[in-house]
């Protein structure tokens, strides 16, 4: 089994991914939707705020109002559009949020550390969290019946709180839970780059044992992709590929090693 995650940032080639995946029946698709969340938030007059952790990881500040926007954009609009497009291409897709069937269970962070003008602050009204358990039985049930599961955040806690969990790390947890051989993380750049603005500086291979060292080359959300890769490998996934969604046949190319391969 293959788990594919496609990013939702500006510049991703979502349709390239869906066209490439449509004939296959051996995958679970996980998607983000940061650009869709930003656009909807702007339209509703709720501008997005960002939090930078002390280690440099960038994440969306998610208070109650932002969680409403997040859920509308991902579990509502974007997930439905992806499922509709896959069905138009002949794929029997079924859309699921992390709440459906307690698919993505996790915990809300008690506080988030944020760096602001050199000071480290504790943010306690943020609804971000971490997925700790995937209802693999539900995914397998759909998979065995011939359906293609399309999964989006949010996750949910045992107390019924929605949590904004990172889609890359969700994909890693899904890959581990399903015993996937490969996790493909598709984004709007060719892979991990030594110089973020220069696609010619692609790092084609990262040995698992040196993953932490290569964090020095990860900027912005690429750090979370490397964190997700590490979690997937620790959980038994054999290979993670970070690759571009902007070219034709992006999944096939990633499986052929066109990107950054971590194994």
What does this entry look like structurally?
With 263 residues, the chain is of the alpha/beta class. The protein has eight helices and 16 strands. The protein has helices spanning 14-21, 34-43, 64-88, 136-144, 167-177, 211-214, 222-234, 250-255; strands at residues 2-6, 27-31, 50-52, 58-60, 93-97, 104-108, 112-116, 119-123, 129-134, 148-152, 155-157, 162-163, 182-187, 205-206, 239-244, 260-262. The longest helix has 25 residues, at 64-88. The mean pLDDT is 93.
Low-pLDDT stretches are none
The CATH level-2 architecture is identified as 3-Layer(aba) Sandwich
Distance between the termini: 17 Å
**Average pLDDT taken over every residue:** 93
**What's the story with the biggest beta sheet?**
8 strands, mixed
- Helix count, DSSP H or I runs of 4 or more residues: 8
How would you summarize the topology of this molecule?
Elements: E1 2-6, H1 14-21, E2 27-31, H2 34-43, E3 50-52, E4 58-60, H3 64-88, E5 93-97, E6 104-108, E7 112-116, E8 119-123, E9 129-134, H4 136-144, E10 148-152, E11 155-157, E12 162-163, H5 167-177, E13 182-187, E14 205-206, H6 211-214, H7 222-234, E15 239-244, H8 250-255, E16 260-262
Parallel strand pairs: 1-2, 1-13, 2-10, 5-10, 6-11, 13-15, 14-16
Antiparallel strand pairs: 3-4, 6-9, 7-8, 11-12, 15-16
